[in-house]
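Q: Structure for this?
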Amino acid sequence: MPAGGKAAFFDVDGTLVRTNIVHAFAFYAMNQGTIFGTAWNTARTLASLPFLWAADQVNRKVFNEAFYAFYRGQSEDRLVVLSGELFEKVLRPAIYPGAAKLIEEARRAGCRIVLCTGALDFTVRALAEHLGADDLLANRMHFVDGVATGRVVPPIIEGAHKAVAIRDYCVREGLALDRSHAYSDSFSDYPMLAVVGHPAAVNPDLRLRNVARAYEWPVLSTAEA
Amino acid sequence: MRTPSKLRRFYEATEQVVVTDRDSPPRLLFYGEDFLVEDLPVGTKVIFPRPPVAGLPNVKAAIRQALNHPEGCDPLHAKLRPGMKVTVAIDDISLPLPPMRTPDVRQLVLEVVLELLADSGVDDVHLIIAIALHRRMTEAEVRRMVGDRIFEAWWPERLYHHDAEDPDGLVTLGSTAHGEKVIVNRRAAESDLLVYVNLNLVPMDGGHKSVGTGLTSYEGVKAHHEPNTIRQSWSYMDPEHSALHRSVDRIGRVIDEAIDVFHIETTINNRMFDGPLDFLMKREEAFTDLDRLKLEGMRAALRQLPRAARRALLQAVPAPYEVIAVHAGRTEPTHAKILEASYGQYMVDVDFQADVVIFGMPYISPYSVNSILNPLLVQVMACGYFFNFYRGKPLLKPGGTLIVAHPCTDAFDPVQHPSYIEFFHRLLPETRDALVLERKYEREFAENPSYVHMYRTGHAYHGAHPFFMWYWGENGRQHLGRIIAVGADNEHVPRLLGWDSAATLAEAIDMARSVHGRGAEIAMLHFPPIVMTQNRG
């Protein structure tokens, strides 16, 4: 690994914003252009909640794959156009008050700012620009003739694959993993945290808080400005 | 004419240095959140604190007197005019130790100053807690320090913490002739008048250190908190012979050229305990049966409690300190008067240096208020503070042995001391060399965004703080031959600190005598309360 620069990798949902990928999908489901489309997608999403919950209990990868299937049949144009509105109405108000400060502190430390999220890229691109991120590692929806297939272009960015994506990114960009930082709120991101030299738990869930205490990782909050 | 036994009792009751003989009672030593009661070898010189200096009968009157008759400048009221911009900076609760009974002296000073400002038509006033790289205080701590009335009226818009990591909140005033950068809080620098409200616990506090250190940034503190400066500080309690204070003074003089600073300094006596714990202020010779009963009762009760409960219990007892001096005006003449009062309370003249010195280590330090005295802080208390409790020659001979009673438990507070944990467990196993630590790792910790964020938004000490704590012990480490920890509950903490271990005080003294010989001169500084030695020979 070249001992070059360093980066700070930020999980997004729960770390920098209060929302998660379900909020983004719910926004799309409720903005279908026709009242019947909206009603159908909303009802379908609500009806699937038990199934999605069960999938999440199996693991995050199963959940993400099952969840992104709901995007099948949506037009790429529409998803991209609505992403601006998604940012303004859903994501921007949900940004934690301390998120920008944490990113700025990482930038001052000489870190390249990279958001690393299991969300779909078009849903978080505006957020990444708003927060001044240098790069975005996010899932990409597979489109055929401008229509979403409901499948994500592999490898899916979640869990252990986030760690692989971060490692590959550092190799590609000539960055030092052991000098880099990673921030997440969820135990499911343990691999992403463990792969860098300076992991930190942000607004952690109980399991991650326990792991952070055990491994003596800093525990931060972005809930305060 | 007094009989020999009466003469001996007179000597034991009045002399600050008592030589242990076969009839001397066992001595009480702090041992973290517990106490040891130990017999000392015959011939051991026990150095007792001076009795508390009488407190001022009317502190507010003394404050008004100081403001109206300042040292080297116009009275405060003469400096005020309507519409001017004033910043009042305040020391944080790292001092005094333990925190004093309310009302805190800072509250009393603020009440007088804020009333004066209001009466003079000065509305643009901010109160800034000068934490430097210390942790932000909790709301409850701030409220306790300034009182309900001020807290309700000023917090958080106009009463807040200095932020040493706010890029927009700092301004560089220039450099000293020695190249030290002078960086201060922007609001303070842009004010027409900066009033600093200080509390001196020991002679190393106050003076130019208040503004120059309390309101600066990491770069500003680093100018003097570095190994080479510390190695030339003999001691922190004797500013004239401390390279650290010389650096701070140079910085302060640059500040004084740029900012109109009105310094209000206060100091307190050493009345640390009273009420049920008043026996801790007595010599063992003066213990009554009730005192002995209270001591044993307290020790038995503490032993039944988990460590966190013991800590909470002991830290919940505020000290009945009394204010013994208030002076105001220009920084240097004001500080000189406060130093005189402080020396009068603490300094005990001695004419010897010992081969072996014994310290009982308490449960508290300036950096562990409402927290844990972690191993790095035990180190700074031993090598940094207690070793430096002298003027002139150190109590311990060069190459002497320091015996420290403390359990040295490997416990850290992840909220207040997150960077200490990494420093202790990642860096110290690699090296204890302060210069190597500084060169290789200090900046990495100082700029670590996690630590910066926890300092700015949580209650964590700055990422570089554990380095400064390590350097703070540097003059002690350079002077001492050996440190022995008595009663450590593990092997690895003393080892990481570079110390030896002994199960009991007797064993530690035997270990020391194996180096210094059977005739080794042994001394003990009898805490509590604070005592310092003065050896001008």
